[in-house]
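Input structure tokens:
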């Protein structure tokens, strides 16, 4: 059986969605007109702008991943740079030079694995950081622990922590991680974490399906 540990529902009869986290948005106010560029590492950053009714200014956007870039486009941004690297540290190195001389806004989660804001500040970027949201762990009573030999997809380090907190770990599980930071969060429990080639849900599910098929033969 394949399980998906994600904040986002996924409608597939062959996949069990485990909702173990929820997003809480913070109140803040920023004037996008005062910035030359904005860094967006999650669609939740865009949702935080919507939550606070921040007026759109079409500035340059540096986005991680296709889903995030799409959220930026849907919000109304048109100058969107979609990074080639979907992993935090590599993303930072990729866009660093492009940020030189710009006043930059970074809307992020309260708790992050990669300290991009510190990295940019240490490298001379004029950056303002706003904690736009936080990820909270749920402890639902109506969700059963996945059966042994299941393939489990993890979509963030926080979702990994939520799973372990709720269910612990069974050595028969096969883990699929959406990225390197998520894989690192699993490293204490699982020796053979598989990381998807691209940092999106579709790639993770394809990998999980392949694992499930190969284990049946």
């Amino acid at each position: 059986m394949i399980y998906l540990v994600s904040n986002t529902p996924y409608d597939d009869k062959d996949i069990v969605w485990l909702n173990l986290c929820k997003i809480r948005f913070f109140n803040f106010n920023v004037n996008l007109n005062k910035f030359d560029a904005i860094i967006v590492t999650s669609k939740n950053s865009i949702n935080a702008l919507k939550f606070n009714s921040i007026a759109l200014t079409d500035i340059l956007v540096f986005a991680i991943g296709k889903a995030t870039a799409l959220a930026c486009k849907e919000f109304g941004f048109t100058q969107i740079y979609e990074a080639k690297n979907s992993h935090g540290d590599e993303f930072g190195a990729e866009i660093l030079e492009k940020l030189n001389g710009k006043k930059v806004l970074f809307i992020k989660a309260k708790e992050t694995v990669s300290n991009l804001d510190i990295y940019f500040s240490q490298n001379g970027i004029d950056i303002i950081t706003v904690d736009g949201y936080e990820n909270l762990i749920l402890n639902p009573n109506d969700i059963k622990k996945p059966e042994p030999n299941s393939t489990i997809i993890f979509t963030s380090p926080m979702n990994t922590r939520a799973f372990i907190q709720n269910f612990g770990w069974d050595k028969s599980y096969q883990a699929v991680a959406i990225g390197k930071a998520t894989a690192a969060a699993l490293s204490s429990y699982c020796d053979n974490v598989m990381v998807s080639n691209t940092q999106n849900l579709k790639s993770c599910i394809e990998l999980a399906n392949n694992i499930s098929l190969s284990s049946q033969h």
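The chain has a mean pLDDT of 91. The chain is about 35% helix and 25% strand.
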